[in-house]
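yo

u said u wanted the structure for the complex thing, so here. seqs first:
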Amino acid sequence: MALASSGPMLFYLSLPFVAAILSPVLVRLAGHRGVWLLALAPLAIFAHFLSLADPIADGASFSGGVSWIPAMGVELSWRLDGLSFVFGLLITGIGTLIILYSGGYLKGHPQLGRFLAFMFLFMGSMLGLVMADNLFALLVLWEMTSITSFLLIGFDHNRRASRRGALQALLVTGAGGLSLIAAFLLIQFATGATSMSQLLASPDVLRESPLYVAIFVLVLGGAFTKSAQFPLHFWLPNAMEAPTPVSAYLHSATMVKAGVYLLLRLNPVLGETVLWETVLPVFGGATLLIGTILAIRQTDLKLMLAYTTVASLGLLVMLTGFGGERAIEAAVYYLVAHSLFKGGLFMVAGAIDHGAGTRDIRKLAGLRSAMPITFAAACLAGLSMAGLPPLVGFLAKEEIYAAIAGPDSWSILITIVAIAGNALMLVIGAAVALKPFLGSRPAALDEAHEGSVLLWLGPVVLGLLGLAAALAYGVSNRYVFSPIASAAAGLPVSAHGALALHPGLPLTLSAVTVALGALVYWRLDMARLIVAVLLARIGWGPDKGFDQAVSGIVRLSSGVTRIVHGGRLEAYMMVVFLTVAGVLAVPMIVYGELPQLPVPLTLTFYEWGVVAIAIIGLIAVMLANDRLTAIVSLGIQGFAVALIFMLFGAPDLSFTQFMVETLSVVILALVMTRLTLHKADHRPTRAKIVDGAVSVVAGIGFGLLLLSVTQVPFDASLSQFFAENSRTIAHGRNIVNVIIVDFRGLDTLGEIAVVMIAGLSILALIRLRVRRPLEADARPEGEAAPKGALENAV
Amino acid sequence: MEAAFALLVSAYFAVSIYLLLSKHVIRMLLGVALLGNAVNLLIFTAGRLVKEVPPIIAPDASVPQGVTANPLPQALILTAIVISFSFFAFLLVLSYRAYQDLRTDDTDEMRLAEPAGEAPPPAGY
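structre next:
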């Protein structure tokens, strides 16, 4: 393994974040033209990756990083091998084009700067995600892609549908993120590995671990939510509420592939088990079929593409789980091809929307003369999606059939699923790429026009790349497909893709696919109707289920709140004191730790006298019917306590207590003259009995607690320490005072602060007057407030 | 000695909790004042009682001679008395102001922050 110095790579990985900070400024200065400058950032990273193409193609990998939280094994470490290399090229290459496209698409939008900042944040997170070596760094970046996706889907946050789509994406992918955290913790627990490199270095440890099943399920939880596998696919079509550049970039070319990336990355350590090779194809195949069928139903270009993205992700998962290097190879061909053509088609859809004012396929026709460049780009992308030569989609489809076709029933089943899915994919590809451009242009589209260079540059470049990758398949195999397939398979693989038409099973299956697709395309309107009727009959889907779940959670939480937080102070107090009584009484009874009874009540007669005064004061406070009695009896019990302190060797306490009780009585008297004490408390007798019982139980509990405390031997070591050191260390003879001002001086400082804050708060409360709701009330109706007065008030 | 004080502490806690459970702010305030004394007496007794000998070192000695009262609970209680006094004063003014503005001292009618029958939150987005 070759080690590169970490400096330049970390610099390049942080470039998108720098661009995110700069973009609002640049857009303010230069308007939408600022994107030309901003696009240089991803372009520079792209170029840096390209400069490493040769060693990567020779099987080298690079790594490096800096320490982040060393105590927990968390590092910002990166690893560049075939897999992250190709993902990096896709993210930065398509990213460059998308940034330019955003400038054209959102030209003049007041929040273009913010939009670009979000895009760059996403780009940085996604790039970091595929480059991350440390498991926890990967997790952080994984979550960051979820969050930036949320921000971008909800970009147009004034619309309810946007907010819903954003929240849905966040909740679904966020739940997946939680699942992934658990998975990585288990992986670390099972293998001790904290990074992908360590994990991949010992491939069999995880498969043989008893935790394999749990890890497998949790990893799938992360991957399936991110890559929108059925039945968690519903968030992806709703994410189409985002502006089209977002759909093209996050929700087709890059972010949704993060789940597939994770599966490919972990394939060498988790794959080749029965579980892996059953669960993945089943979910992937189901997603492929359901995605394409739902795509047929749609009439909005973006939604049609969104559902085929779901289907494509299903196909990728199915291939990843099929087993064998050949299937992995097919998966990576399709992954690259899909990113190129789907990104392009989304941009075409956006350009059509921009130029013709609608994305409804039923209203679009005959745009070829008005938008010739877009039409050319659409053809290249659409043909690639349809899997026709001479485009990279064709290579992918040939590889798929070569990989999965076989004589056993499982292979045949998978092949049938693949043919059906690919045929329907061809239908959608053709519909999106051809339908809007062919035929005669309706009068409503007279105004249609080609967009600026920013709008067509992206799809054209991606289309041409798809063509070039297929024509120069020798080059693309060496630099792209072989490295990524080797990294994903865990052993050197040389890619087989070639443009030549070899007669054989794959070609036959391709022909079947095209024929089937052409048939459906011919009867597309009817197919749409059939699917629509079918769906209407089912009536319920995960999307609706999500709404029900969300409103259910809101209802549940507001119900729980109403119960535990009902707004009645008395109820809160009752709960608190019931708990107090329970906590005191129950353990003492259950564990038999009640104090020994009876106990001798030995006090001298004058001590009894003081205690009696205190109790009389207490009872008088409790029964007081007028404020004078209440104040006086409060004072009586307070002075009795002061006397008790005096009798038991605490003159300081006694003095303070006298002062404080006097002050309390004075303040109470001041305030009470303005308040009325109700004659008796309003509690009904039943409430009084309940309250009385609770307070008696709590009171007895405290008494018993105190008794049992005093019946165990006394540990005087702390008091001894103060007694011994008060004079020798702190030079004071009054030990209590020394403790307060010296040993625990900081505590006393805090106490003084509390007193000060209480005083300030009292001052504020007294000076704060009821704010009258402006003078407007006093003024006759209809008369406008003088302008100056209103401004002053504001 | 301590047993008699345990009785006194029980009475203090029982009365203060009984007052705190009443729904009148003024009675609850009286309860708060009593609660402070209850806790202080609890701590004081838990540190054991010694009659009439304050923890003071004689001028010609470096450690206290003979048995003295436990200084530690005294120091803790001294802090507690002052803090509970400021707390009491603050609560007193606060409830007075609340009474002025809300025209009631019944906690059941003080529902400004958590009004009764509040509409449930929107279930949508």
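DSSP finds three helices and no strands in chain B. Chain B has a mean pLDDT of 86.
cya
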